[in-house]
Design goal:
Blueprint: H1 2-35, H2 38-48, H3 52-65, H4 70-82, H5 86-97, H6 104-120, H7 124-132, H8 140-153, H9 157-170, H10 177-191, H11 197-217, H12 221-237, H13 241-254, H14 259-272, H15 276-289, H16 293-307, H17 309-322, H18 326-339, H19 344-353, H20 363-372, H21 375-386, E1 392-393, E2 400-401, H22 422-425
Antiparallel strand pairs: 1-2
Length: 426
Amino acid sequence: MDFQTWWLIFVPLLFALGWIAARVDFRQMLSETRSLPSSYFKGLNFLLNEEPDRAIDAFVEVAKLDPETTELHFALGSLFRRRGEMERAIRVHQSLLSRSDLPQADREAAQHELAQDFLKAGMLDRAEQAFEAVLDTRYAVPAVRALIRIYESVHDWPRAIESVKRLRALVDEPVPQLVHYHCEMAEAAMATKPPHMEHAGQALDAADNAARELRKEEGSAASEVRIAILRARLAILRGSVEDQCKYLVSVLDIAPAYASLVAADMLESYRKLGQASEGLQLLRDHYTRYPALDVFNVVFREIRSQQGHRPAWAFAREALRAQPSMLGLDRLLEVELAAGEKRPLDYARQANESDADPAQADPSAVLEIAAGADFTLLRSIIHRHTQRLDRYACQTCGFEARHFYWQCPGCNSWETYQPRRLEEIK
């Protein structure tokens, strides 16, 4: 009986204490809500209504009324940077850094945000300094990545290489562009007058080492092709045609699709060695297995040079039948117009005169008669329609260019260009 009476007293007491606590919390919440400026709620309302300009103005007013709101300052800075208002973003983050009472974690965050502002504004020197200031913080990895992009953009390849080494010490991941950094240094050394061949050789050795490490993880045929091409260029600077030929031929085995980048130089090296026919046969066999427009063009020109007009057009007819190409036909007509010899119509007439029955005429002569009717006009019409197809395209951003690039000029990505023209890809 005493136990039941005790509970009858205790239960109402618990309810009373709970009611008092709720009232206190509710009053505190109301007081905190009333202390928030009305501009804060206006800003939220503008954001919900997708009116970012008016929302920013409202939040700026809040920040002026209460400078201690660091989270709001960070949000404003990000909004300004996203909208391209770099001066305002920089001022917001600099105002945060000027506060002596800012916690260390917030100071590091503000420094990193400021570095991103400078980078997006194109102020590379100040961005570099700002990112270097957070290399010993939790923002070290993104800061190093940003420094790599900065050094790439200014072609400071030695510092880009050092930054890649620092990144590899922080995260265990492959950095494929390291090979190209060394290749860029090799190209720069060979471009000087006189060429610094020793420095170029050292850079290519470093590129080989980087490619070997990369091959263990994921492999990169494109970077190995570039090394072979640069070694061939270095070999010819040293006066060794044999080595040049060896490196260029190796591209056919490393990455057959890249034969179009070396076909012309490879045939030239065979010609200097007195082995033009062997070089032509090697490239012709390669084309049979891996047809490509630029290789077709080189082979056609070389057959025409070594064997004459008719074998060249016979090869072209079979090749175009197997791989129809407007660009291929355009290149054929260009060669014929530049030859300055007999017109195809003359060849065709000679062929027909030797045949009593027109039905037995050489098929290539029939093609030549059609082309010879107005060769220049035919080529101009075709060329007008093939200009837009005679380009390389970046697989990442779609940037088109007439020349092949290892790094896309549009998005700065590496190895995103296929060694094929647009007509061959589509």
